[in-house]
Amino acid sequence: MILSLDMKTAFVSVVLGHLFTVVLISAYRYGHKKDKLINTFYVSKWLEVIGWGLVIFRGSVPEYIYLSVVNSILFAGSAVETIALSMVQHAYNRKVKRRYLAFTLFSIIGFNILVFLDNAESTRIAFASFCTGMFLVYPVYRMMTSSYTSKLKRLMGYLYGIVVIGLFSRSAMSLFTGESMGFFTPNVYQALSFLSLYLIMILENTGFILLYKEQADERLIQMATSDDLTGTLNRRTFIEQAESYLTQLSRSRSSVSFILFDIDHYKNINDTYGHIAGDRVLASMSALIKEKLKDVGLFGRFGGDEFAILLPGMDEKQSGEAAEQLRQAVERMQVSSIPVNFTISMGIVTLDRRFEPDVSKLYKWCDQALYEAKRQGRNRVVRIRFTNEKQGVIEYV
User: Fold this and answer.
1) Are residues 241 and 197 in the same domain?
2) End-to-end alpha-carbon separation of the chain, Å?
């Protein structure tokens, strides 16, 4: 095993790796609309190109200036890159931003204090390794523990977790073993450090691009399946998923309930307060109902102000109580720019094991119940109960 490396040549390969990533991102950014996530990662790559590039010129300037400038740039690059990793997980907010800013300042100021007051190599390496590892802790924790994470994110979390352990181990070994952990000291640690640095570069660049592609795919799926205004399932997706649910429920012979509802006098809201206010009503009401449903069943917009809810496994009593709770919640809610409350009318049907489930039939029957709710004066829940598939009795719930 070759323990002595030409480290300037080694760092040139690392710089070129990051530089190629910058070039490819630049080509992608040309002609595309501004993307904050890509721009953040782009900035981090430039910082790493500059930081590792300056390492090549070690010895050309006083040591303390070289150490201060290079490591300050690399700390900033690590911070920006881990911010990008948090952004790709939708885990970046003002609180996280403040913490990253504070820790970046701590890292840069703390390292420079060590350089100008102590300048012991072991202390510098321990501090730098520890801080770099700490930058990664938050996004790695999110990737490894989030219940909604993908297999790709979880795998990257584990790989980055190994990187964090390696950085913390390097920090501890630098302090307590007496061995030199510097990149320019020929020993086994020099070779391992460079190999780790090169593998980290591949993980950073390739992994982030894959995570970004995964996020883009998720956005496309959401755009194809969701209603733009309300964030609920669109009609086509609701029907497809409902049919899949119904097939499973028919096999288990479980009950299923279907609710169809719309907003009472919705046209008057649009005519009186404007279509923007009407859209706000639809969006606010949908957000409220999604919160109340808590991911139980399906919720979709069928068109205009008409919505549908599928409640798998709910019998007449349970679905009736759920529908009434939703109706009351909507009746109590208030929407900005709308000085009056609004209400909804709901039609509901529950099927048991005697009926073959069919979305079109459920819609037809609930539409009859919804019409009856309107006829009775609106702002109510009306259930349609069938003794067989051809004859039914509508009764007020």
Assistant:
1) no
2) 81
Quick one: tokens of 41?
């990662």
Residue 172 included in any domain: yes
At position 96, the amino acid (one-letter code) is V
pLDDT digits (tens, 9 = 90+) for 100-147: 999 999 999 999 999 988 778 888 888 999 999 999 999 999 998 887
pLDDT digits (tens, 9 = 90+) for 69-81: 999 999 999 999 9
What sign does the CA torsion over 195, 201, 206, 208 have? positive
Strand partners, 140: none
Q: Where do we find the tokens 């300056």?
A: 54
Domain boundary among 170, 195, 225: 225
Q: Do 125 and 174 form a contact (C-beta atoms < 8 A)?
A: yes
Q: Is the dihedral of CA 124, 127, 129, 132 positive or negative?
A: negative
31 burial type by CB count under 10 A (0-12 exposed, 13-18 middle, 19+ buried):
exposed
Dist CA 161 CA 167 (whole Å): 10
Helix (H, G, I), strand (E, B) or coil at 129: helix
- At 89, the amino acid letter reads Q
Distance CA 5, CA 244 (A): 60
Q: How far apart are CA 242 and CA 359, in angstroms?
A: 7
Query: What pTM did the predictor assign?
Result: 0.69
Q: What domain range is 138 assigned to? A: 7-225
Helices (H) and strands (E) in the chain, counts: 12, 6
| Residue tagged 């885990």 (tokens) | 91
